[in-house]
Amino acid sequence: MPGTFQGTAYPEHNSTPATVAALTTALGKFTATPEEPDRAEIFDKWVAAEGQVPANVPMWLSRRKWIATVCLWATTEEGQAALKRYHVTLAMFGAVVRAIAHHAEGKTGRNVAVTNETIADGAAAIHGKCSVRTVKTIRQRILGPAGWAMEVKRGAGQGGGRYNRPSIWHLLSRAVCTLSSTGSFDLKPSVEKFSPSAARTRRRISSKTTPATTTPVASQDKPRHSHTRKLAGHLGGRCLGFGKIHPGRLADVLEASHLEVQAWTPRQLLDALDAQMTKSHFSWPDHLTNPAAFLAHRLSALPARPEIRAATPIPPRFVPEARTAAAKPSTKAAAKELALQSVINARRAAAA
Description:
Elements: H1 20-28, H2 39-50, H3 63-74, H4 77-85, H5 90-102, H6 116-127, H7 132-146, E1 149-153, E2 168-171, H8 196-208, H9 226-238, H10 247-256, H11 266-279, H12 291-299, H13 329-351
Antiparallel strand pairs: 1-2
Helix pairs in contact: 3-5, 5-6, 6-7, 9-10, 10-12
């Protein structure tokens, strides 16, 4: 008879055997399962790494100002020509611009990493309808060439794969110089000009202004030439530090310089400044205390007229060498017979 502590090979009917499922559940509590990677975090790291650009790439001032400035540019002659070229209405352009700016970083305007479909949905909520093709046209054909946006990384993938990546765009700010020299554009509504706060601001500024500063400048008595304003607008939009001042001051510097302004194009002027900087081993400063004086100093080193490089001479036409006439069969037979006779003579001399 077995003892008290030996047990039995047959369990009693009131015992509850442990099932496999219960054991698996119990063991699962002590098994360390690897954490799944956060796809959103991986995507953010990819955007931050691929969206890096040099520090001299301009940023926007704010989301509201960028939208207002781009919409204002769309009403100018340059903007109207771009919209007309690609058959885009002003209302559609404004809706897409707002949808794009919604996905940019608030402080810098960088890292717009969303697909054209997402932007089209956002623009459709504003305008009523918008196609993916329209978004692609506005981003790549209008905003990009005009300097309002820059694509730093082209997207990859198709078919909704998990490793698909959208394009990364940065939204930029540039100066708009399309008005007369006697005024500047205002992004605020015209009602604010007649508000009590605006009146108090004008009184405060006028009380602090001395009579010496109210003397009109001689160069502003007559309107500036449109070509000079065009050059000043390109300098303010493309050169670091020049966009902080009114384009009229840059235009005054251009007119006061020794340059024949009418002979220069914006592209030639920018290329000449870059070439002069490279030649003098001078790097463009990150901060300009007096942009107008700095521009006058840089212009003093340029020639009065742009240098026109001589055209590359056209190389002479390639003329292949004339081939020698093929030997006649009789000549080949005579040469073969002469070679055979020389071999025979050599063997006879060796045998003797």
